[in-house]
Design a protein that fits this description.
alpha+beta; Beta-Lactamase; four-stranded antiparallel β-sheet; rod-shaped
Length: 499
């Protein structure tokens, strides 16, 4: 930032040179009337020792120097040389007037004073030094003439010493005062540039934020700017960007939230009002950039409410936040669909092994219901069908088994395909035996294109019959029961499984 301020201040000095040079050029042209003014004084007897030739010479010199300076101003308006020429020209003019016995002593200090306009220490010191040198030369040159009007000085040297001593003291005072003034001016302008830089950066930052907010307003359904410093809210979706005050002592929700709450699903309203409570937003958003939650609009479906920190204190407490809402119903549906796909078996549309394992994790967290039952099911003879009729026939058998299980279990629980021809079911039933018969009966009724019949081995284990058993124990028991049923089936059919 220091470098930027120095650069901009340097540009200001350069541009200021051109402006001051223009004014100094006007001053030089104005001094052209000095000749006629002095001539008038000669005419009326004010200046007795000055000739009309001197008056003409003064005007000619001034016009010549003003013309040269005008040329330099056009060609090199910001040049240091153009500035120094103007200061030197004024000094030369004063020197010539003094030499011509037009002694207006105050004008010796005019040039150093004018040099302060450049806000440049070099210009000031140049004006002081040049002024003093020309003053010294002029005072010495005119001492012989001036001493004749004063009886108190015995010779030229005494007059010169006295006059120059006074000029020196005045020049020292002028130099010190000018130096202090120059320092104050430079410091003042640098401070202004620093403040201007800060204000500009703040304005740029605010403009960028407003551009961002305007672009956000196009994305979101509602965009509200909440200022906790000034206790205001501004709706950025409105063209007028109306600002409303917030009474933090009595108000718990913004006007926008009070409007939106009328469309929130009733069973989610309490959660929505807790999330949007003004009195807790700052503490919940502390050290965070965003706070979000999803709710259901009774008309448009799911929407996402978010608080986004725009400006905060050094401790991370939000001063300004953006409250937004955006419809995410389609996103939620895609999300639910992806979850459903990840938990569903492609072939049978039943739940898959992953879903079964996740459900068991949740079930283990709580005490088992008395009606809790685990079913273990296996399709009989699938390998034989695959070997003799092909995998298409085998897939048909698996799909048929899935349909029978889904129809039998219905709303009593969930059915999972956990392997090739292996199924599990988590059921809540007071009569699991009746459910087993239903599954077997539906299997008897099934007929496919490639296979005329389908049989399944169904085993189960209930919490009611095994109150001390865990979920994992019941799973092993249901598997064991299923394999007993399978052995029974093969014995009845006279099939030797080892072959």
């Amino acid at each position: 930032m220091e470098n930027n301020i120095s650069t901009e201040y340097g540009e200001f000095l350069i541009n200021n040179r051109a402006n001051v040079n223009r004014y100094l050029n006007l001053v030089l042209w104005f001094f052209a009337v000095t000749g006629p003014a002095i001539a008038a004084g000669v005419y009326f007897g004010t200046f007795k020792d000055i000739s009309y030739t001197t008056c003409i010479s003064i005007s000619v010199i001034v016009v010549l120097m003003a013309g040269i300076h005008r040329f330099l101003l056009i060609k090199f308006p910001k040049s240091t040389g153009t500035c120094l020429f103007a200061l030197t020209a004024l000094n030369v003019l004063i020197m010539y007037m003094a030499y011509s016995h037009v002694s207006i002593y105050l004008t010796w200090f005019l040039v150093p004073l004018l040099s302060l306009l450049f806000c440049d220490m070099f210009m000031f010191f140049y004006a002081i030094v040049m002024n003093y040198i020309l003053m010294f030369i002029t005072t010495w040159t005119t001492a012989s003439y001036d001493v004749t009007f004063s009886a108190q000085y015995k010779d030229k040297l005494a007059f010169f010493a006295n006059r120059m001593g006074g000029f020196t003291i005045e020049m020292i005072i002028m130099g010190a005062a000018g130096y202090i003034i120059a320092k104050l001016i430079i410091s003042y302008f640098k401070n202004i540039f620093s403040q201007y830089k800060t204000i500009t950066e703040q304005e740029n930052s605010m403009n960028e934020k407003m551009k961002l907010l305007d672009s956000m307003a196009e994305i979101y359904d509602n965009v509200n700017l909440i200022d906790f410093v000034n206790n205001t809210e501004t709706s950025l979706r409105d063209d007028e960007h109306k600002t409303h005050g917030i009474d933090m002592s009595a108000q718990t929700h913004t006007l926008m939230v009070q409007k939106i709450k009328n469309q929130v699903m009733p069973d989610q309203l309490d959660a929505f009002m807790t999330f949007t409570n003004l009195k807790t937003i700052r503490s919940r958003l502390a050290q965070k950039k965003i706070l979000s939650a999803d709710f259901i609009d009774v008309v448009t479906g799911w929407f996402r409410a978010q608080y986004i920190t725009v400006d905060s204190t050094l401790d991370g407490i939000p001063n300004v936040v953006i409250y937004t809402t955006r419809n995410v119903d389609e996103e939620k549906r895609r999300e639910e669909n992806l979850i459903r796909i990840s938990l569903t078996d492609d072939m049978t549309r039943l739940y898959n092994r992953r879903c079964y394992d996740e459900d068991l994790i949740e079930i283990r967290k709580d005490a088992l219901s008395e009606e809790f039952v685990l079913f273990s099911v296996d399709v009989n003879g699938l390998k034989t069908v695959n070997d003799t009729k092909g995998h298409i026939a085998g897939d048909e058998l698996i799909k048929g088994a899935a349909d029978c299980l889904a129809l039998s279990v219905g709303s009593k629980g969930k059915v999972y395909r956990t392997g090739g021809d292996e199924f599990m079911a988590i059921v809540y039933s007071s009569d699991p035996e009746e459910l087993r018969r239903s599954i077997l009966d539906k299997a008897k009724e099934w007929h496919g294109i490639y296979s005329d019949e389908m049989t399944m081995s169904v085993g189960y284990a209930s919490h009611k019959d095994n109150p001390a058993a865990s979920v994992d124990d019941l799973e092993h028991m249901s598997d064991k029961d299923m394999y007993l049923e399978k052995e029974k089936f093969y014995k009845e059919r006279g099939i030797e499984r080892r072959k």
